[in-house]
């Protein structure tokens, strides 16, 4: 390898290794942090010991804001109203493939934010990843009472919304 190649590799690898050292392992940990950003109805960013940590709310899946799913923006606003700018308690579980900490979050009122999103009809229980029957019950109650997105006649679950749409194209003549 030439000196230039080695130098380029060193500069490319250096920032990555420093980042890995700075990010604490929060898996299976409970900690307090300030919510500084809401990305969508089930994802936020918190500041913990001068480190930004992306949190994906456990047990729930919200309508897709970035893919223009109905109620996507409403879910983001609901999550913001529940915890933006607050000190929250984060109960870390594990990390997803996008390096977000999967967690249950309690706000300053001691409300479990994940559960509140279901109660407000702003989320589905994420059946693929949650076997917790409390979350199933909260979703069922919101559906029955037609709260939030359950007012819609045929709401589409986010995991179905994210699936690539099959498109038919006219045949070439």
Automatic annotation (TrEMBL):
Coiled coil: none annotated. Keywords: Endonuclease, Hydrolase, Nuclease. PROSITE patterns: TNASE_1, TNASE_3. The keyword Ribonucleoprotein does not apply. Signal peptide: none annotated. InterPro entries: SNase_OB-fold_sf, Staphylococal_nuclease_OB-fold, Thermonucl_AS. This is Thermonuclease family protein. Residues 29-152 form the TNase-like domain. GO terms for molecular function: endonuclease activity; hydrolase activity; nucleic acid binding. The keyword Lyase does not apply. Pfam families: SNase (PF00565).
């Amino acid at each position: 390898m030439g000196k230039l190649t080695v130098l380029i590799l060193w500069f490319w690898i250096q920032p990555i290794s420093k980042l890995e050292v700075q990010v604490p392992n929060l898996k299976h940990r409970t900690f307090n942090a300030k919510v500084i950003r809401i990305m969508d109805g089930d994802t936020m960013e918190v500041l913990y010991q001068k480190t930004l940590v992306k949190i994906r709310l456990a047990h729930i899946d919200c309508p897709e804001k970035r893919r223009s799913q109905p109620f996507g923006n409403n879910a983001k606003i609901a999550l913001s109203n529940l915890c933006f700018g607050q000190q929250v308690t984060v109960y870390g579980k594990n990390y997803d493939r996008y390096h977000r900490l999967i967690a249950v979050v309690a706000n300053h009122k001691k409300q479990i934010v994940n559960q509140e999103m279901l109660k407000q009809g702003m989320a589905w229980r994420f059946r693929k990843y949650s076997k917790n029957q409390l979350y199933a019950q909260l979703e069922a109650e919101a559906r029955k009472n037609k709260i939030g997105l359950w007012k819609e006649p045929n709401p589409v679950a986010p995991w179905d919304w994210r699936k690539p749409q099959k498109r038919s194209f006219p045949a070439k003549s």
